[in-house]
Amino acid sequence: MDFVMIVNGCTGKMGKAVIEAGISAGLQVVPISFSTEEEAGQKIQVGGLEFNVHGPSDREVVLASVVEEYPNVILVDYTVPDAVNGNAELYCKMGVPFVMGTTGGNRERLHKTVEDSKNYAVISPQMGKQVVAFLAAMEIMSEQFPGAFAGYSLQVMESHQASKVDLSGTAKAVISCFQKLGVDFKLDQVKQIRDTKQQVEMVGVPEEYLLGHAFHMYHLTSPNET
Question: What is the reported pTM?
Answer without folding.
Answer: 0.73
